[in-house]
Design goal:
45% of the residues lie in helices and 15% in strands. With 259 residues, the chain is of the alpha/beta class. The chain has one domain: NAD(P)-binding Rossmann-like Domain (Rossmann fold), CATH 3.40.50.720. It has a seven-stranded parallel β-sheet with strand order 3-2-1-4-5-6-7, with helices on both faces. Helix 2 crosses helix 8 and helix 4 (71-84) runs parallel beside helix 5 (109-137). The longest helix is centred in the middle third of the chain and has 29 residues, at 109-137.
Length: 259
């Protein structure tokens, strides 16, 4: 057993949606610096370009603009990945997400449509579209990987009034289990990661207003760092994580188990 090989993902090809910022970029950068050819997708070209410029010569990252709230956007992104990689893909990270906060009495229908279209339907549609490409690279010893980014808000009751978001992330966790069973015969594993508080665009306002208080709620006493998210994503994509399938892993410093 070579432990370095056990955790190596060098030479693989990955697509990370929502890869232009926050948790998506933490994963994409970690993959790129580990020798993975990475595609990052987001709706904003400028944001994607800024991340690639920030990386410099630290890895191979390509940006693709895509709107994953629509079936057309998911199909188009799948088509482009297949065309660029000759119908092959090793790792799909479904990270693109939307949030909406509003008081219970005023919570609008649009908040359900927008959030569930991206967070749930988009994950399903893109995974289904890229299943043939994932199956093309999969082996018994090293299956292809789907990693869905959920949230501890889909495990515990959130303090904020983000009803559609927390429901959508609980759905992502369960859909990951359902897809894990469906895709296992194709040698594709499906797992979910449930992040706690990390420095991301979605968490920016919350951390600015109550970052110190939030850190005190975490048993480990701090907000998550990029290395924490990159680490779990690398593990799940490596040979070390090849036999992990259908689970949701909280990466939250213990906060989801402290309530």
């Amino acid at each position: 057993m070579n432990v370095n090989d056990l955790f190596s993902i060098e030479g693989k090809v990955a697509l990370v949606t929502g890869g232009g910022s926050g948790i998506g970029w933490m994963i994409a950068e970690g993959y790129a610096r580990a020798g993975v050819k990475v595609y990052i997708a987001s709706r904003k070209q400028a944001e994607l370009d800024a991340r690639i410029a920030e990386l410099g010569d630290g890895g191979d990252v390509t940006a693709i603009v895509a709107d994953l709230s629509t079936d057309e956007g998911c199909r188009g992104l799948g088509d482009e990945i297949e065309a660029r990689e000759n119908g092959r893909l090793d790792i799909l990270v479904n990270n693109a997400g939307a949030n909406w906060g509003e008081e219970y009495e005023d919570f609008p229908e649009a908040a359900w449509d927008r959030v569930l279209n991206v967070n749930v339907k988009g994950v399903f549609q893109l995974t289904r579209r890229l299943t043939p490409a994932l199956a093309a690279t999969a082996t018994d010893e090293d299956p292809s990987r789907v990693i869905n980014i959920g949230s501890i808000d889909g495990i515990t009751v959130p303090a904020l009034e983000t009803y559609s978001y927390s429901a959508s992330k609980a759905a992502v966790h369960h859909m990951s289990r359902v897809l894990a069973r469906k895709l296992a015969p194709k040698r594709i594993t499906v797992n979910a990661v449930a992040p706690g508080p990390f420095e991301s665009r979605m968490m920016k306002a919350t951390l600015e207003a109550a970052g110190d208080a939030m850190s005190r709620l975490v048993p480990l006493g701090r907000i998550g760092a990029p290395e924490d998210m990159a680490g779990i994503a690398i593990y799940l994509a490596s040979r070390a994580g090849a036999y992990v399938n259908g689970v949701t892993i909280p990466v939250d410093g213990g906060i989801s188990h402290a309530k």
